[in-house]
Design brief:
Radius of gyration: 28 Å
Distance between the termini: 31 Å
Largest sheet: 3 strands, antiparallel
CATH class of the largest domain: Mainly Alpha
Number of helices: 8
CATH topology of the largest domain: Four Helix Bundle (Hemerythrin (Met), subunit A)
Order of helices and strands: HEEEEEHEHEHHHHH
Mean pLDDT: 88
Number of domains: 3
Strand content: 15-25%
Shape: extended
Low-confidence stretches: 1-5
CATH architecture of the largest domain: Up-down Bundle
Helix content: 40-55%
Length: 272
């Protein structure tokens, strides 16, 4: 099977999501470094004020630019109604989670399988309802939630883009195993698990098998780190690590659509 046909995507959407909390907060800045403020003229005769720090030694600076910048300041945040602002943040976070709960993570934005579009629309409608309900009663703060969706083209370019994310997560799991960092393994495994929802059945099965092996190895890392861990358990951890690495390597080779492209680029570079 060629590299171009190894990774197949399910029909899907890319979802652009914007949420915000505006109003009700004022920021006041106070500069802590006082300026000289002496009046003078620049080389062209135009009137200027010296902006160097107060108490500076030497000549004043009447140029349009000064080498000294304000390096210290104090910022005061004033919230008109803290209870309302806190509620706005909760509503914003809930609105976002309703939508992202239906979507799939990727470096290119939120994705959603086409067969879950109705569920996505329902989640957006509920998010809008909650936001509108809050905005109708709020005095100082407004919450915004907006969603745009577009069909992901069924072409090689789309598959290559998703493939790059899949490979990145596989590489992160392998790095975590090499470093004995079970947290890094689990973080990447969670992201890749979400992303598998966009893969066809064959690629999804390959990825899921690799994820299962990586999770098992991560659990073995935790057990081996225990003070009560026996020599046998530590050896088991090493064996599980090797097995998971092999499975991840196989998955990477099967799902990396960009490997052939990079090989051609490297080959071309060596000829010049």
């Amino acid at each position: 099977m060629s590299n171009e046909t190894k990774l197949v995507l399910r029909p899907g959407l890319i979802v652009a999501l914007s949420t915000s909390v505006t109003g009700g907060v004022i920021y006041q800045r106070k500069d802590l470094d006082e300026r000289c403020a002496k009046e003078g003229s620049n080389a062209m005769g135009a009137k200027r004020t010296c902006k160097r720090l107060k108490g500076h030694a030497g000549n004043c600076d009447f140029t349009d630019m000064t080498a000294e910048e304000i390096t210290r300041w104090e910022t005061t945040r004033i919230i008109a109604d803290k209870a309302e602002h806190d509620e706005a943040v909760k509503v914003r976070n809930k609105a976002r989670s309703l939508i992202t709960g239906v979507t799939v993570w990727s470096n290119f934005g939120n994705l959603c399988p086409s067969d879950r579009e109705a569920e996505l629309d329902a989640a957006y409608a509920e998010a809008r309802r909650r936001v509108d309900e809050f905005n109708d009663k709020s005095q100082h703060t407004r919450v915004g939630v907006y969603m745009l969706k577009a069909t992901i083209p069924d072409n090689t370019q789309s598959a290559q883009a998703i493939s790059s994310d899949v490979v990145e997560m596989i590489d992160q799991m392998m790095t975590g195993l090499n470093n004995g960092d079970e947290g890094e393994v689990r973080e990447a495994a969670n992201k890749l698990t979400s992303l598998t929802e966009m893969l066809g059945e064959g690629p999804k099965a390959i990825a899921e098998k690799a994820i299962a092996e990586a999770r098992s190895a991560a659990r073995a890392i935790v057990k081996a780190k225990s003070e009560e861990a026996t020599a046998i358990e530590k050896q088991k951890q090493k064996d599980r690590n090797k097995q998971a690495q092999r499975q991840l390597t196989q998955a990477r080779q099967a799902l990396d659509m960009n490997a052939a492209i990079m090989a051609k680029i490297e080959e071309a570079a060596t000829k010049h």
